[in-house]
Each structure stands twice: as C-alpha cells, then as structure tokens.
Amino acid sequence: MNIKKVKLEDISKTKRPTLGDEVPVEVFRLLRIIGMYSILGEGSGYTLYLAGKELGVELEVNTVDELGTLLKKLKIGILTVVESSDDRIVIRLDECITCSGLPDIGKMICHFEGGIIAGAMERVLKRPTKGVQTKSHTSGFDYCEFQIHLL
Ligand SMILES: [Zn+2]
After folding, report:
1. Which is it for strands 144-150 and 78-84: parallel, antiparallel or unpaired?
2. Cα 72 to averaged position of ligand 1 atoms, centre (Å)
3. Taking 80 as the threshold, does the pLDDT of residue 6 lie above it?
4. Distance (Å, rounded) from C-alpha 145 to C-alpha 117?
C-alpha cells in the first residue's frame, strides 16, 4: 500500500456541495482542544507548537501584513504587532479561534497558534524564531499574546 501525506495545498480542497467549506468554531475546538489533548495528552503543548511551526513556515506569506490578512481570512484570529525590536516581536491575537471566550483555567492552550505565528515570522524575517505565549483567554485575559524571540 502506498501511503501518502496530505499536503498543505490539499487541505483547502473541499468537496462538500451541501455543507460548504466552513465549520462552527465549536467543532474546531472539539477537535483542536479535546481531540488533540486526548490523543497527545497533557503536556502536549510543545508537540502542538512544533506542528504549528512546521505549518507556519510553509504558509505563503512574505510580510507581517500578509500573515495578518491570512490569519483573518482563515478566521484564526486578528493579528496586531504590539512591539518590535531586534530580538523580539510581541504579537497580539484577538478573537483567537482556540481560546476566545473560554474561561480562565489557569493555563494557556494556544500552542498551535503560537507555532503557526512563530513559523510564519521565521519565513517572513528569514531568522530562526521561538514563540512563547504570554496571555490567553484561558489565563484571564481577553486576547492572546505571543512573544516571538528572534534567535
Ligand atoms: Zn488563544
């Protein structure tokens, strides 16, 4: 049997004439939060971050603005650059697909989004990055924040 990997460009091909190409945020979260955590377990954050980063590097974006436009189009969130220096960029994500509206559970769970942003920034800036989430709805804020360290 010839097993192939689903490629990034294949993901957007949907064949759903009745249901269309959108799903409720609720369904996404079932898969993203409950599904992934039950498969990968608690402490899966770093794995999810790495998966997100691998994806982020592959995104067809060449500027921070293009990344913001794409994240908005995909309804992942609304990106704003809060602070930018030679070694660090602070990014705010409003209406985060994973955590927006969730209660404060005392931890941050948007590792995948952090990875996507860090990976995309690596591509845009052509410098290695490390993303760290510093704020989240699930840690008591009403937006997400990621520090992207430029290595
Ligand atoms: Zn979030």
Report:
1. unpaired
2. 14
3. no
4. 11
Return the residue matching tokens 């309804």. 75
Does position 51 have pLDDT exceeding 80, yes or no?
yes
All domains of the chain in start order, with CATH: 46-150 (3.30.1380.20)
**How many A from CA of 128 to the centre of ligand 1?**
23
Looking at every residue in the chain, the average pLDDT score rounds to 92
Cα(112) to centroid(ligand 1), Å: 9
Contact 81, 91 (CB under 8 A): yes
C-alpha 85 – ligand 1 centre gap (Å): 23
> Is the Cβ–Cβ distance between 121 and 148 less than 8 Å?
yes
Q: 83 alpha carbon to ligand 1 midpoint, in Å?
A: 18
